[in-house]
Specification:
Layout lengths: L6 H5 L2 E3 L14 H11 L1 H23 L9 E11 L8 H15 L11 H4 L7 E5 L12 E5 L27 E6 L8 E4 L13 E4 L16 H9 L64 H11 L6 H4 L2 H6 L13 E3 L3 E3 L4 E5 L7 E5 L7 E2 L5 E2 L5 E10 L4 E13 L8 E3 L12 E5 L7 E3 L8 E4 L9 E6 L10 E9 L10 E7 L7 E6 L22 E5 L12 E7 L6 E10 L4 H9 L1 E4 L6 E8 L3 E9 L4 E10 L2 E8 L8 E9 L2 E9 L1
Length: 696
């Protein structure tokens, strides 16, 4: 008979899984520190946990005294994975989550192939817990889900689950009476690979109930590995009332652990292992080193005693474990059947392409359809029954995509209108000038917005550096960590060897404290297939002092112009594209205006000097405007007006003009101009300058 273990230490056990390097150097969590913090900072929760632990132990003894142990009934537990991410590797794939579910079910049902490797002394003791885990297929409101929730938040770097307002788990949580919550994060402050609370410790605090785990310890594929794949098995063991095999601490390998116990009769006393010594004998008997609740990293089994202890906790009302597997809850969470087809959906590898480029379409319907019928109007493949087809388009335009899925019982369809935009292989010509005066909404045929969190994103603003429009993100109300992109249509740079790209930015902080807001500029030489960062600004992004209320620029001096003149010759092709990416680090609103791309063969200083001698005024104008420029010597000059569609009207072509100041009147009637945006282009020898003008 095993020694009685200490209830006080078991009571509020904050259990840590483990973090391992390839050399198996483990890092353990601050379990003792967390337990002490609860005792000191929340004595009421501590006392309630003591009472719940005593009750659960009595229920476990009563369960174990039954002859049958109520075996033969499989308990199904609905699960939801909350992937808290910053768009990094922690934003693991659905496939990695599915793999994790398969791993834990294989382990809990003793279906893992490596049971054949269990040492002879313990092979007959290996237990099937008859507990299985199913990804939820209905959310708390009864809506369709695949049991995976993705939330962009900087909390992914904290991995904290505690009883204050700073808990990472506050970002996304479903009722613990209906689901096992698992939070996947980038890092955990304590250095753990994962941790949870045992049922008694959180009986009176549902917000703490669940498992926090690093992304690279979830499943065996993707960012994880086979070596780390049993972490969730270990943590779920804690979640349903198992201790470590050596007892009630996170510290294996200590001789005094022989005096402690895990309250399970068929797991021998041990000091615990961080290596796979299958002949280890630390407390006068052979150690069960291959147990999932050890740190050996060669775990392959639960014992029958552990399985019975977990089943006892599963049928207990402590922390509402018994409500999870009830038929009513399984129906409410969509886990009463293996699959519940409730939504047709799909994604594409790209939604903006040039003519002839391939697009991978992938079915992401919920849950597990057996047949697919795709329709691609205008595509090189107009229809197909392949699950994940590849399609291209031969004509520019916007195209709908449809998908009908079936599981043999239900038929669901999804049509996404104007889902694919096909751009011409030869983009719009220079000069490229965008002031957003004629772009009322986004996205449109010339601009494409990427907004994964569906929060605030790029939109047209009624304020501009020039004119009355620009684009902005209402970043004042955006979640920290949000990343939003806006990308251009294709632009033809093939006639040139060098271009300059300029744009104006207005941005403020909310207060004087440091923020991590960052604006990046990316370029693509292949119509958006690949992107390369060419510019970024973070610490010096602010253009005005901090603003306590939502920032709106009110003066031209609140805008700063940036110029990029370092694009390699490889980008000088017919389907160049660019995009801006903004990452919210806690700042205020951001604005962009006056995006210009021009052919320049002179340096920046020469351009600036040239610009000072080329003026168009007034701007905006109603009837007439004045064009003024000066020449240092007799030179060949060409002057034209270009409308928003690129149509060029010459005022005069390649004529020699003497040195000195030159002015001429620009009359809207003579040039047949209507209200809108125009560009005055002045070519002087080997220099080109363009001014945007607005006709009211």
């Amino acid at each position: 008979m095993k020694k009685n273990y200490f209830i006080v230490f078991a009571l509020l056990l904050v259990v840590f899984s483990f973090k391992i390097t390839m050399a198996q150097n483990l890092k353990y969590c601050g379990q003792a520190e967390a337990e002490e913090r609860i005792r000191i900072e929340n004595p009421k929760l501590y006392r309630e946990g003591l009472k719940a632990q005593q009750e659960l132990e009595l229920q476990t003894k009563a369960y174990n005294s039954q002859k049958s142990g109520e075996r033969g009934t499989v308990y199904f537990i609905p699960v939801v994975f909350h992937i808290i991410h910053d768009f990094g590797p922690e934003n693991i794939s659905d496939q990695q989550v599915y793999d994790a579910i398969q791993v834990i079910n294989t382990d809990f049902r003793k279906l893992n192939a490596d049971t054949s490797e269990i040492v002879a002394a313990f092979k007959s003791l290996a237990g099937d817990s008859e507990i299985e885990f199913r990804l939820a297929q209905k959310d708390p409101n009864g809506n369709c889900t695949n049991g995976i929730v993705r939330v962009a938040s900087l909390e992914t770097y904290n991995g904290v689950n505690y009883f204050d307002d700073m808990s990472t788990s506050n970002v996304s949580r479903w009722p613990r009476s209906k689901y096992l919550n698992i939070w996947v994060v980038n890092s955990i402050k304590s250095g753990a690979a994962g941790y949870t609370y045992r049922p008694s410790a959180v009986n009176s605090n549902p917000n703490l109930d669940g498992i926090m785990v690093l992304h690279n310890y979830v499943g065996s594929i993707g960012t994880a590995s086979v070596q780390r794949s049993r972490t969730l098995t270990h943590e779920i063991g804690h979640w349903i009332n198992l201790a470590h095999t050596w007892g009630q601490t996170n510290n294996p390998g200590i001789s005094t652990n022989c005096n402690d116990d895990d309250a399970v009769s068929d797991t021998p006393n041990t000091i615990g292992w961080t290596s796979c010594n299958l002949s280890g004998n630390t407390c006068s008997s052979l150690d069960n080193v291959q147990n999932y609740m050890d740190y050996s990293y060669c775990s392959k089994m639960f014992t029958q005693g552990q399985s019975a202890r977990m089943r006892a906790a599963t049928i207990s009302n402590i922390s509402q474990r018994s409500s999870l597997w009830q038929p009513g809850n399984l129906a409410a969470t969509g886990t009463d059947n293996a699959n519940y087809l409730c939504k047709a959906d799909f994604v594409a590898s790209r939604t903006e392409v040039c003519v002839g480029e391939l697009i991978d379409f992938n079915d992401i319907s919920f849950n597990n359809p057996s047949t697919w019928n795709w329709t691609f109007p205008g595509g090189t493949v107009s229809s197909t029954t392949i699950k994940n087809p590849v399609v291209s388009y031969s004509t520019p335009g916007q195209y709908n995509v449809g998908l009908l899925v079936s599981d043999g019982v239900s038929n669901l369809n999804e049509t996404k209108n104007n889902f694919i935009t096909v751009l011409p292989t030869t983009g719009i010509p220079l000069p490229y000038v965008e002031g957003f005066e004629s772009s009322p909404t986004f996205p449109n045929g010339n601009w494409f917005v990427f907004n994964t969190d569906n929060a605030q994103t790029w939109e047209v603003a009624n304020v501009g550096a020039t004119g009355s429009k620009s684009i902005r993100i209402n970043n004042f109300n955006n979640p920290v960590g949000a990343i939003d992109e806006i990308s251009s249509t294709a632009i033809d740079l093939s006639p040139f060897v060098k271009v300059n790209i300029s744009f104006k930015v207005a941005f403020a902080k909310k207060d004087a404290s440091a923020t991590t807001d960052e604006l990046k500029f990316f370029a693509s030489s292949n119509c958006g297939l690949t992107w390369v960062q060419r510019w970024s600004q973070s610490s010096n992004l602010t253009t005005v002092p901090a603003q306590a209320s939502p920032f709106i620029p009110t003066d031209s001096i609140q805008w700063v112009q940036y110029t990029i003149s370092t694009l390699p010759i490889a980008y000088m092709n017919s389907n160049f594209r660019f995009k801006f990416q903004f990452k919210n680090g806690g700042g205020n609103n951001i604005y962009i205006d006056d995006i210009n791309i021009n052919d320049y063969s002179v340096g920046i200083n020469e351009q600036d000097e040239f610009a000072n001698h080329f003026r168009v005024y007034p701007n905006p104008f109603n009837e007439d405007a004045v064009i003024a420029f000066s020449l240092n010597k007799t030179e060949s000059v060409e002057l034209s007006v270009i409308d928003i569609l690129g149509k060029e009207t010459f005022i005069y072509q390649e004529r020699n003009l003497p040195s000195g100041e030159h002015t001429l009147k620009l009359n809207k009637s003579e040039l047949g101009m209507s209200k809108g945006i125009y560009f005055v282009k002045l070519t002087q020898a080997d220099k080109v300058m363009i001014k945007k003008i607005i006709l009211n």
